[in-house]
């Protein structure tokens, strides 16, 4: 039973859930296992001085903040065999400008037969500070969420003096590059002066271990680590991407935790109450206007939301005071001559009647 808000559940690439499905474990058993693991995660964090709910901005996308990915030429570092240490040492001081965020790091992989198109995708999106031939080097990247324009300007200006820094890409909105990065990089959370990361399963959760080779402590951060299985499921930010064919399990597990039944939102009817629709038009009309959808009627707006919901993932699982099961998602609305406009949509779900009611759009 869902008792507390769970900001995110990441089962995208987690073999545990695949194995449970293969072993024909019941929905009820999986549900109880997830709740038990979540309670353990929350308690371990509390014992380490971290409140789970304070990590929301690292775990949930915010349509008022941006996400960026910084790119570096590994061949231009002083020691190209441990380039990540030097690059991260340059980056870490800037983390103190953000209270809470998720940080991803690793190589941008030019996969075999797809290498040319992956390089081309990066070349087209890059805002260059220093030139590098991406086809002739190893590219290291650092992806950060929950940042504002001032942070982007400051870090780009400062890093431009560092010879290994190539430039950055704003990855706030949907793109092929963002999908690629979502499957390449490992992560940790920065919260106040803590770095929160996963450690091996055979270590106790009483330990705090820097599992990276990065100079985190040297840069003034305290390590708080937790077993990988707990970190990966509950503390790993999901870089936004569509529900890809063959990866539907993530949505199924999310709805299982929310409702007790594994399912897909494709099987539900969506609607907005008439009085709620009028409220949305009045209270959030500026957002609908900015998205260029203020002229839509109730049915058209509902259809737009349903058509877009599986292009992303759902988050913020909670039970309302009236017992309704609630969740949210981000949708992106294409606009003529402008970037896509991002909207947060809040919903509640009725599994008996197969209905999803839209409660807010902003």
Task: Give an overview of the whole structure.
This protein is α+β, with helices and mostly antiparallel strands and 362 residues long. It has 12 helices and 13 strands. 33% of the residues lie in helices and 25% in strands. It has 2 domains: 15-24 and 243-361, no CATH class; 53-234, Ribosomal protein S6/Translation elongation factor EF1B (Alpha-Beta Plaits, 2-Layer Sandwich), CATH 3.30.70. The model has no long low-confidence stretch (mean pLDDT 92). The protein has helices spanning 15-22, 27-47, 56-59, 83-95, 115-125, 149-159, 176-182, 228-234, 249-259, 274-283, 285-290, 298-309; strands at residues 66-73, 100-107, 127-128, 139-147, 165-170, 186-191, 194-199, 222-227, 269-271, 314-319, 325-335, 338-350, 355-361. The longest helix is centred in the N-terminal third of the chain and has 21 residues, at 27-47. A hairpin with a 4-residue loop joins strand 12 and strand 13 (355-361). The strands form 2 sheets. Strands 3-5-1-4-2-6-7-8 form an 8-stranded mixed β-sheet, with helices on both faces.
Output the keywords.
globular, 362 residues, alpha+beta, eight-stranded mixed β-sheet, Alpha-Beta Plaits
- Helical content band: 25-40%
Query: What's the CATH H-level superfamily name of the largest domain?
Result: Ribosomal protein S6/Translation elongation factor EF1B
Q: Any idea what the CATH architecture of the largest domain is? A: 2-Layer Sandwich
CATH class categorisation of the largest domain: Alpha Beta
């Amino acid at each position: 039973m869902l008792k507390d808000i769970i900001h995110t559940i990441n089962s995208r690439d987690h073999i545990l859930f695949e194995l449970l499905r293969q072993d024909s474990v019941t929905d009820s058993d999986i549900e109880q296992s997830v709740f038990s693991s979540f309670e353990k995660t929350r308690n371990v964090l509390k014992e380490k001085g971290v409140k789970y709910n304070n990590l929301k901005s690292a775990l949930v996308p915010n349509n008022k903040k941006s996400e960026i990915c910084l790119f570096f030429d590994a061949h231009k570092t002083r020691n190209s065999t441990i380039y990540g240490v030097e690059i991260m040492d340059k980056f870490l001081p800037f983390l103190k400008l953000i209270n809470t965020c998720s940080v991803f790091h690793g190589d941008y992989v030019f996969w075999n037969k797809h290498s040319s198109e992956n390089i081309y995708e990066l070349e087209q999106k890059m805002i260059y500070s220093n030139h590098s031939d991406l086809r002739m080097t190893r590219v290291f990247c650092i992806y950060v969420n929950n940042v504002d324009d001032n942070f982007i300007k400051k870090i780009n200006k400062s890093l431009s003096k560092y010879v290994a820094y190539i430039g950055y890409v704003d990855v706030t909105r949907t793109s092929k590059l963002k999908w690629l990065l979502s499957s390449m990089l490992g992560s940790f959370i920065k919260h106040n002066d803590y770095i929160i990361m996963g450690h091996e399963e055979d270590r106790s959760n009483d330990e705090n271990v820097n599992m990276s080779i990065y100079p985190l402590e040297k840069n003034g951060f305290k390590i708080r680590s937790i077993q990988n299985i707990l970190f990966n499921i509950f503390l790993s930010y999901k870089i936004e991407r569509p529900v890809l064919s063959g990866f539907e399990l993530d949505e199924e597990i999310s709805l299982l935790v929310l409702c007790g039944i594994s399912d897909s939102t494709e099987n539900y009817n969506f609607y907005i109450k008439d009085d709620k629709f009028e409220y949305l038009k009045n209270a959030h009309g500026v957002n609908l206007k900015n998205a260029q959808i203020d002229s839509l009627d109730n049915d058209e707006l509902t259809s737009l939301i349903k058509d877009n919901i599986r292009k992303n993932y759902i988050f913020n699982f909670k039970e309302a005071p009236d017992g309704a099961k609630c969740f949210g998602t981000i949708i992106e609305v294409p606009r003529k001559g402008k970037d896509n406009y991002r909207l947060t949509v809040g919903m509640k779900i009725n599994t008996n009647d197969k209905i999803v009611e839209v409660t807010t759009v902003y």
